[in-house]
Structure formats: structure tokens, C-alpha cells
Amino acid sequence: MLKKKDRYNVAVMGATGAVGTQFLWILEERDFPIDELRLLASERSKGRKLIFKGKEHPVHVLSKDSFEGIDIVLASAGASRSKEFLPSAVKAGAVCVDNSSAFRMDADVPLVVPEVNPDSIKKHKGIIANPNCSTIQMVLPLCAVGRLASLKRVVVTTFQSVSGAGQSNILEMEKQVMRLSKKESHYGIGEHNVPEELVKEFQHQIAYNLIPHIDVFGDNLYTKEEMKMVGETRKIMGLPDLAVTATCVRVPVYYAHSESVNIETGKKVSIGEVMKALKSFSGITVVDDPKANRYPMPIDTEGKDDVFVGRVREDESIPNGINMWVVADNLRKGAALNAIQIAEHLIAG
After folding, report:
1. Residues 149 and 72 reside in one and the same domain
2. Is residue 194 part of a domain?
3. Annotated catalytic sites, by residue?
4. What is the dihedral of CA 100, 349, 236, 287, to 10 degrees?
5. Based on the domain organization, do 44 and 116 belong to the same domain?
6. Half-sphere exposure of 18 (CA within 13 A, CB side)
7. Please, which residues have CB within 8 angstroms of residue 62's CB and are 6 or more apart in sequence?
8. 194, 210, 315, 316: which one has the fewest Cβ atoms less than 10 Å from its Cβ?
9. In this structure, are 108 and 251 located in the same domain?
10. What angle do CA 151, 153, 155 make, to 5 degrees?
11. Where residue 349 falls among pLDDT bands split at 50, 70, 90?
12. DSSP E strands: which ranges in 186-270?
């Protein structure tokens, strides 16, 4: 367990990546009580220095000996590295909050969204898992509705930004957009295609396109990302039999994921009740004014901490159905912020 201190030694694993950068920004924004900050990354980042609170901090090469004296590890270096290195961190006495998929479905590892299941944090054995970004933003409104009536079924379609796939994917879309912006198009066939050499990280061109799969396909023809949403939602909500189905789509947006969420409840709840529950739920901001064309959009939620919900309406095809539109910054609440909120709960005891 974490010893109570005034200040803590914190290691950021994957410090030079997209989420690692967000870790540093948010730790500084929230004035997390840090004594020593240790930045860890791969050999490629050796010699780099990053700024935190106006001071340069060297980036150290990640190894199994990197965690001596560390109290908290914030990890976002990929599942394989988490599996390889976090056991050493735990052995050295650190508590690890892992942003990868490595331990999420491990029965002995809590999977936590602090607004939904904070008590699970106390059950950790050295590692706490941060859920998938698309799962995090969905379970907040699910929990709000679940306080009104039992949840029977959830159908979600995600529209996920390229930043969810990492820094290299952001740069790939940027190169494609820049190439296409230089073309004089008369809207002919093929005028919006980029050369094959600009398609690397994704299997298809992402600029001006949608790709209806994220991660690899399983034998059931669902992708790994889609099945993450199923399993993680059930675990976080404590509802192992909840019917959940997902379709995950990559879209040409830089930051923030959007989701169309359909919820079937065990009894009828009014839209007024749902709106009241959403507005009073910590971490949710409701933006829902159809007459004024106000609803959550990625461009407005980028850089924001809350999960934004709008387009709330009855599903008229079933007796007890609700539709909503959910948007959140995938690098903040969908990753770094949620992990730091977990760490804040840890130090609060």
C-alpha cells in the first residue's frame, strides 16, 4: 500500500509519447504533490529533456532498475512494456497506474474510473488499470442512468480520433491532409486519394475517410477494440451479464472521441429524469439545446476534462430506450487525467 507523505516520487513511463506529454501537463495543472519526477522512455528518447514546472528534466532509458525509491508510476508505454516492467516497479514498492490493456481484465487488478467505482482502488495489489479511452467516457453517463433504473442493454458506435492510435498516426493524417490540400480537385473519381507511400500506420488512407475497424479482428468478426468496450464496461460497472455491443470507427479528427450511445433500461425513465441525473453527475457536462444547434463536438471538447453529453432523447423503437451523444478528449479524461485522478485518490487514502 502507498505510504502517506507530503510529497511523492513519481515516475512517468512513456514520458515522450502523446499520453506521457499529457501526464506532465495535467500533473502541473493540478499541482500534484511531487518530490522527485523521473521520466522514462525507450532508447530512442535517450538524451532528451522535457520541461516540467519551468525546469528541464532528463529522460532516462526505461529498465527494470528504474523504479528504486519511486512511490507512484504512471505508465503509458504499451501493453508489452507494462507486462515486462511494472512487476519490477511493484517489487520496488511503487503503486502503478497503467494506461495500457495489459492488466485490464486481470481479476486481481482493479479497473477504475474514479467517478464510477472509486472503492475498487483500495483492492489493488500494486497495479491499477486505466480503462480504454472509449470505455471511460461511456461509463460516466451509463452510471448516471443506472442510478435511475437497471441497465438492460447498451449499443454504442464510436467515432475515434487519430490521436487514440499514437503520435505517429497524428503525423500520418497531417501529411495526407497537407498533400491533398495542394491538389486542385474537380471532385472527380480518385481526386481525394493520397499516394500509397503516405499510408503506413493505418491500413487505409484516413484523411477525408472513415475506417470501420480499430485494432485486429477476432474470430467473432468484432475487433479487439470493440470487445474491450464490452468486457471493460461490464467489469467497471460490476454488471457481468450486461448486454453490450460496439462498433468502433476511426475518423479524420485529431483529438477527442465521439460516441452514439443507446441505452435500454429495465423500467421507463423520463428524459427529464435522465437530464437531471446527467447534470448532477461529477465529471459530466451537458450540452443539449437542439433549437440553438448546441451539442458536444470534438472541436469544443479538446483540452477539456469533462465528458460532454448531448442529443439526449427517447429511443422510440423500444419501450425503455434512451439515445445520447457522448464526446470527450481521449488523451485527457480518456487516458492521462483518469490515471492522475486515480493517483489522487491513492494519496488521499
Report:
1. no
2. no
3. 133, 257
4. -90
5. yes
6. 20
7. 13, 40, 41, 42, 77, 81, 85
8. 316
9. no
10. 130
11. confident
12. 243-250, 257-265
Quickly tell me which residue has 472509486 as its cell: 118
pLDDT digits (tens, 9 = 90+) for 216-238: 999 999 999 999 999 999 999 99
DSSP conformation letters of 79-147: HHHHHHHHHHHHHTT-EEEE-SSSSTT-TTS-B--TTT-GGGGGG-SSEEEPPPHHHHHHHHHHHHHHT
- CATH code for position 142: 3.30.360.10
Q: Are residue 273 and residue 317 in the same domain, yes or no?
A: yes
pLDDT for position 124: 97
Q: How many whole angstroms separate alpha carbon 30 and alpha carbon 186?
A: 50
Residues 253 and 285 in one domain: yes
- SS3 category, 291: helix
Angle between helices 271-279 and 133-146 (to 10 degrees): 120
Q: What is the pTM of this model?
A: 0.94
pLDDT, residue 1, reads 72
Tell me: do 45 and 139 sit in the same domain.
no
Domain that holds residue 319: 135-161+210-329
